[in-house]
Amino acid sequence: MRNQIDLLATVTVLGVLEQAYFALQVIYARRKYKISPPETTGHPEFERIFRAQVNCSEYFPIFISLLWVAGIFFHQGVAAVCGLLYLYTRFKYFQGYTVAAQGRLGPLYASARLLWLLLGLAVAGLLAHFLLPRSSAWMAALAWPLQLLGAW
């Protein structure tokens, strides 16, 4: 079973490490600008770093849920690639937001599109799971291109 979820697990751990990196950036900014918890306002650079971290944290449960459902019910490899792209866009979002609020917009839109894609893959996989017979010849034909890519 491990080889059926290894890519999803890897992307999940990378996502957790990314969240930890974002949280550390808030800690460093608090020290730099002398803003003690629970304060969330102060220097504009601190506020942007704080908001970027909170925003990424808010979307993380949605991302992880969609990653795993899409990976289990649609295709692990496709979901993992989407997950890696999502993590990259969130990193670019964080970097852009810390410099200027407008810098977050391009990566924000890209990460939103990837979440919608993961949602579509998850829904397609679930529909196929519940509605299509397992021995269907046409289902095998649909799965054939993915098998050519390798059975992740």
Q: How would you describe what is shown here?
A:
- The protein is mainly alpha-helical and 152 residues long.
- The chain is 83% helix and 0% strand.
- The termini are close together.
Keywords summarizing the entry:
152 residues; mainly alpha; 5 helices
Helix share of residues?
Answer: over 70%
What summary fits the major beta sheet?
A: none
Low-confidence stretches: none
Morphology call: elongated
Rounded Rg: 19 Å
Task: Report the strand count.
Answer: 0
Quaternary state of this entry equals: single chain
Mean pLDDT: 92
Cα end-to-end separation: 11 Å
Strand content range: under 5%
Order of helices and strands: HHHHH
SS content category: mainly alpha
Number of helices: 5
Question: What are the SSEs and their pairings?
Answer:
Elements: H1 2-33, H2 44-73, H3 76-99, H4 105-131, H5 137-149
Helix pairs in contact: 1-2, 1-3, 2-3, 2-4, 3-4
